[in-house]
Description:
Blueprint: E1 14-17, H1 30-42, E2 47-50, H2 62-76, E3 81-85, H3 91-104, E4 108-112, H4 121-134, E5 139-143, H5 145-148, H6 154-160, E6 166-171, H7 176-186, E7 189-192, H8 198-203, E8 208-211, H9 214-229, H10 233-242, H11 244-249, H12 255-265, H13 282-294
Parallel strand pairs: 1-2, 1-8, 2-3, 3-4, 4-5, 5-6, 6-7, 7-8
Helix pairs in contact: 1-2, 2-3, 3-4, 4-6, 6-7, 9-10, 12-13
Amino acid sequence: MAPTSTPQTPFGRVLTAMVTPFTAEGALDLDGAQRLATHLVDAGNDGLVVNGTTGESPTTSDAEKAQLVRAVVEAVGDRAHVVAGAGTNDTHHSVELARAAQQAGAHGLLVVTPYYNKPPQEGLRRHFTAVADATDLPVMIYDIPGRSGVQIETETMVRLADHPRIVANKDAKGDLDAASWAMARSGLAWYSGDDMLNLPLLSIGAAGFVSVVGHVVAPELRALLEAHRSGDVVKAAEIHRRLLPVYTGMFRTQGVMTTKAALALQGLPAGPLRLPLIELTEEQTEQLKRDLAAGGVQL
Length: 299
């Protein structure tokens, strides 16, 4: 059974978009995934997103996705919300992934804006609605126009919020103006999907984070969140500033690449990447070490 949630925090507050560990041969590493999930929850995450783009979902099979959900739910499903990525640019395929995620035990779904084909707003509305209609699971939509090529407009957010299972948005739009209006008008629970904007989005009403840097600084993200919630905005800002080198360092190049390198440096399960993603160069790894150290991360 999923941990307790509220309408304001349907998926918890501090979630990490988890990488998918692979073996040295490139196969799915389910034991590593369970160990990594346990580590992340122990570190302060009360939710995990699996099979998102940080989990290399474009290069994992549907069968692997279902196996991963089952493994992570088995490991931490009684302590953390397990949210399964089910978004593609094919509505039928997304519906199939959503149903498979529910069967595998996921507590919720993350559904990204269909990418590359750039549908109109009515196409987006129908896509998200079709996926939400396919299961009984709560849905977090994911607005990331930098990758999808099209934004979810505020009016579309408002209409989607009428669906009883569309309850949240992961915001990687980088537009605080749009976020403010969409939060105010839709009533959706809001999650920062851009680590550099974690604190700014909290300040305008976000419930929490779906983070990449949560792989390495989950306790600090939890402290930032709790400081802000308690009204100690000075402390929250101090934590934000201390984390700036981590925020910057983890995104100097592609985020999955740096995250797997950071986990390897800490002796945690990660493994290789699947093409077209590649390992960091030696120079990039040394820069990552400096960035993480500057942000207080122990390696």
